[in-house]
Amino acid sequence: MAKTAIFLAKGFEEIEALTVVDLLRRAGIEITTASITDNKQVTGSHNITVEADALLSDIKFDETDMIILPGGMPGTINLDACEPLKAQIRAFADAGKKLAAICAAPRVFGKMGILNGKKATCYPGNEEFLQGADPQTDEVVKDGNFITSRGMGTAIPFGLAIIEDFQGKEAADDMAKKIIFRQ
């Protein structure tokens, strides 16, 4: 079974994080919510507090197949300031392992210089941070081991793209039908 982890920072966009968690769990893809702070309770950008499954320090990255970053402000800035997380993102990029980010969060990848030569998308106005990337305006962009998406309104397509990446188009299409998405 595929193992993924989504990282929550104070000020994360709740819809972008929890929609992905919900969809992946429905699909049978293991996803761990991980707080980048020293507390499992993390408050999102709209004052919704969730309890993460784990702390960043608990994640076994060698057993993780994908790192996922939700956007939101100041969540994205807080993710970008988390050096232990960025060290793992760098290791994943260097190893060609899967990385996904939505909304403003692709800028974390861009500022690290790991999107060089890749097509990527992000929340409008954050394109300047996609250093070395070819910015796109599609809802979801997959290029190699990267999946990026634009924002809260694209959280379902983003989650479905992750499902497709692990389980194939038929599984993603089946999930879309099950949740009555764009019928």
Question: Can you give keywords for this protein?
Answer:
two-stranded antiparallel ribbon, seven-stranded mixed β-sheet, Rossmann fold, 183 residues, 22% strand, alpha/beta
Describe this structure in words.
34% of the residues lie in helices and 22% in strands. The mean pLDDT is 97. The strands form three sheets. It has a seven-stranded mixed β-sheet, with helices on both faces. Strands 3-4 form a two-stranded antiparallel sheet. The chain has 183 residues and is of the alpha/beta class. It starts with a strand and ends in a 5-residue tail after the last helix. It has one domain (3-175): Class I glutamine amidotransferase (GATase) domain (Rossmann fold, 3-Layer(aba) Sandwich), CATH 3.40.50. The chain has helices spanning 14-26, 75-80, 83-95, 106-112, 155-167, 169-178; strands at residues 3-8, 30-35, 41-43, 49-51, 54-55, 66-69, 98-102, 119-120, 134-135, 140-143, 146-149. A hairpin with a 2-residue loop joins β10 and β11. The protein is globular, with a radius of gyration of 15 Å.
Q: Largest sheet, described in full?
A: 7 strands, mixed
DSSP E strands, number: 11
Report the top-level CATH class: Alpha Beta
Question: Ranges with pLDDT <50 over ≥5 residues?
Answer: none
| Widest β-sheet, arrangement of strands | 5-2-1-6-7-11-10
Q: What's the pLDDT, averaged over the residues? A: 97
- Principal-axis shape equals globular
CATH architecture: 3-Layer(aba) Sandwich
- Helix residue percentage: 25-40%
Count of helical stretches: 6
Radius of gyration: 15 Å
Helix and strand content put the structural class at: alpha/beta
Strand content: 15-25%
Distance between the termini: 29 Å
Structural domains: how many: 1
Q: Look at the structure and name the CATH superfamily.
A: Class I glutamine amidotransferase (GATase) domain
Order of helices and strands: EHEEEEEHHEHEEEEHH
InterPro entries: Class_I_gatase-like, DJ-1, DJ-1/PfpI, Prot/Nucl_acid_deglycase
Keywords: Repeat
Organism: Butyrivibrio proteoclasticus
Protein name: 4-methyl-5(B-hydroxyethyl)-thiazole monophosphate biosynthesis
